[in-house]
Design the sequence.
């Protein structure tokens, strides 16, 4: 990494290549489609290159890189929200959307991970993806998302509960109360 | 599990999937409800772990190459912070290449020589952009007069003879407000020229406020500098405008920007005249 930071193009290439696939994966799952994910991945890699001189080594490089990448993905989502898009009945809203019963049924039928994740608020989605897809622990996710580990734990639980509902397992609030604390 | 419920909540059951929790493990053996809920959360977790198809190697190479190329660029891009102009003067973010500085200096010199050889008012220069003695020219004359009255006339001396008059983007420090001003520029110009073409009598009120009217920059001077800053991703130059922003003469160049996905967006660059220093580069 020192070589990459010193301007060694080959070292920088190798450093990015080591993480690019996982960065692309998190972008793919967070933004929900290939085209925007490619844009987000590009922005993420550029942001890492630009931010490298400011990386102070207090966190692991991968943690820092994924913080940059996750922010790039969230920026891409915000840009997409500002862009007018054609309305498609089969397309679920991206952020903070509560799907209709019919939509849930369709998702369950085809097990569409993108559509299922799209039903989650983005902060839950990012936490679940970082944990379940990339395997970061709660402390690392807390550093990436810049929230306390307790918040990470809550977001992951609520994200998984949301996915469980989409998969046909709603929270059994009648016979098995689920207190928030 | 708490005083009101014999069951563990989702948060506890979920975290027990990620780290050993003896209390939960013991409870699951006796509680079918919690076991079912834990299984549902585990299924959701496995669902979220569905693998993502790897990037096409060619695309991956391109993405990395583009990012590595960024390391050679001198400053940050994207939605650059819109700084107060005074601080831009102190901190030169994008020093133009030496040849560009020389070219700009030569242009200024030529402008000075030409203005001596062919003295003309800012109104003369304005009318050169439209059909002489047409109603449009008359109306634009009025606009030029208003602009001169607002104190813009002196800034025109930076430019070559025959170049268009400048408008004003205001003093927006907020990037979104700047984007809105840039996006409205072509509409304002179109509306103004349409009104002018409608036959406004000579001496009538200007087509729009002198503080917001902008005129097309027929000869963008900073396109090369903008392309040097923006790199290969910049596509066609859609609309060049010469304006005033934060009291400085500037050129707004709006490029088509094609992203790796094929999505097309707009990259605007506001560059100070005449030295083509980048002041802001909002994307929209």
Sequence:
């Amino acid at each position: 990494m020192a070589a990459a930071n010193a301007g060694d193009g080959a070292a920088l290439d190798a450093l990015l290549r080591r993480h690019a696939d996982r960065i692309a994966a998190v972008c793919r799952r967070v933004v929900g489609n290939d085209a925007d994910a490619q844009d987000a991945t590009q922005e993420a890699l550029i942001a890492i290159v630009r931010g490298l001189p400011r990386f102070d080594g207090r966190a692991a490089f991968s943690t820092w890189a994924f913080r940059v990448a996750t922010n790039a993905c969230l920026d891409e989502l915000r840009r997409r929200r500002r862009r007018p898009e054609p309305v498609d009945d089969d397309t679920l809203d991206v952020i903070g959307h509560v799907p209709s019963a019919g939509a849930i049924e369709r998702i369950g039928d085809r097990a569409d991970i993108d559509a299922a994740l799209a039903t989650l608020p983005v902060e839950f989605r990012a936490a679940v993806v970082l944990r379940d897809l990339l395997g970061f622990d709660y402390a690392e996710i807390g550093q990436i998302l810049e929230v306390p580990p307790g918040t990470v734990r809550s977001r992951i639980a609520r994200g998984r509960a949301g996915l469980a509902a989409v998969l046909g397992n709603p929270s059994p609030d009648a016979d098995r109360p689920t207190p928030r604390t | 599990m708490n005083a009101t419920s014999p069951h563990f909540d989702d948060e506890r059951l979920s975290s027990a999937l990620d780290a050993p929790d003896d209390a939960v493990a013991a409870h699951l053996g006796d509680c079918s409800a919690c076991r079912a809920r834990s299984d549902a959360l585990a299924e959701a977790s496995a669902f979220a772990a569905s693998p993502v198809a790897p990037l096409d190697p060619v695309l991956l190479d391109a993405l990395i190459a583009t990012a590595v190329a960024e390391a050679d660029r001198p400053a940050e891009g994207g939605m650059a912070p819109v700084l107060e102009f005074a601080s831009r003067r102190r901190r030169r973010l994008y020093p133009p290449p030496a040849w560009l500085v020389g070219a700009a200096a030569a242009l200024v010199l030529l402008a000075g020589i030409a203005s001596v050889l062919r003295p003309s008012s800012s109104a003369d220069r304005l009318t050169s952009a439209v059909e002489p003695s047409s109603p449009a020219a008359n109306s634009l004359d009025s606009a030029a007069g208003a602009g001169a009255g607002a104190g813009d006339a002196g800034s025109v001396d930076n430019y070559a003879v025959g170049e268009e008059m400048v408008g004003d983007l205001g003093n927006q420090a907020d990037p979104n407000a700047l984007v809105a001003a840039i996006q409205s520029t072509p509409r304002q110009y179109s509306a103004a020229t349409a009104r002018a073409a409608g036959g406004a009598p000579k001496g009538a009120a200007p087509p729009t406020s002198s503080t917001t009217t902008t005129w097309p920059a027929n000869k963008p001077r900073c396109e090369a500098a903008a392309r040097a800053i923006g790199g290969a991703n910049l596509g066609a130059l859609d609309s060049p405008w010469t304006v005033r922003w934060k009291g400085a003469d500037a050129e707004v160049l709006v490029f088509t920007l094609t992203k790796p996905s094929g999505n097309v967006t707009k990259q605007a660059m506001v560059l100070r005249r005449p030295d083509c220093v980048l002041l802001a580069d909002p994307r929209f």
